[in-house]
Structure formats: structure tokens, C-alpha cells
Amino acid sequence: MFGGGGMNPRKMKQMMKQMGIDVTELDAEEVVIKTADEELVFSDAQVTRMDAQGQETYQIVGQPETRERGSGDAGGEDATAVEAAESAESADEDEAIPDSDVELVAQRAGVPKGDAREALEAENGDLAAAISRLE
Prior knowledge:
The protein is α+β, with helices and mostly antiparallel strands. Helix 3 packs across helix 4. It is built from 5 helices and 6 strands, in the order H-E-E-E-E-E-E-H-H-H-H. A hairpin with a 3-residue loop joins strand 2 and strand 3.
């Protein structure tokens, strides 16, 4: 019924631009998806970000390596050390929420900065949880 094996990529880009969809290829070295039981690690994955009406969607194409949660390689240990250092810093600052985080949550949720700060504090600085709480 439809010949030609698909749409011309150039034509597809034009159509997406007309609909207000911006597509960006990301140069990702590694993508890790953590579930309750395991981690899916994509090395050399092709990552595309689509921005449509302010909503970002990420597409990952590649073959993941599956590993048990918490059995990360040396890279995972480095990340844990960095998290511990950041945690110590925030404890020194009386667990202050960065203004940039407050602004981001306020903008995404469409609320005043005071409400955004309260939500961040209630969610222990978790940006996504604070935004969900306010929506």
C-alpha cells in the first residue's frame, strides 16, 4: 500500500518542525536504567531527545547489558563516593536547597518559589518528586 520503504528523513524533519517538535541527537557514552532488582546499562547507545510543547522525551536505541542492582563496576563506586561527598557538603550547609533547584521546580510546576522550596524540603531535595507533589 505504501511504497518507498518509509518517509524521506528530510521531509520528516520539516513536518516535525512545523508541529513544534525539536529533535536532538545526544552524544551519550553510557545510559543506566535502575529498577528495583537490576540495572540496564546501555553502552554505545543512540540517544535522541524530542521536545514537544515543553515536554521532553528520550529515546534509547541499543542493546543493554543487565546486571544485578548494587553490583556496579568501579564507575558505580566513584558515583557513590561523589554522592557521599555531596551529601556531606549539603549537611555542612544545613541541608540548604540550591536556588537553582527551587527555580526549576517553581518554573516546571508553575508555582511560587516559596511553594517550590517547601515541596523540595518535604521531598528531601528530589526534584521530580517535588514537581509531582505540586502538580
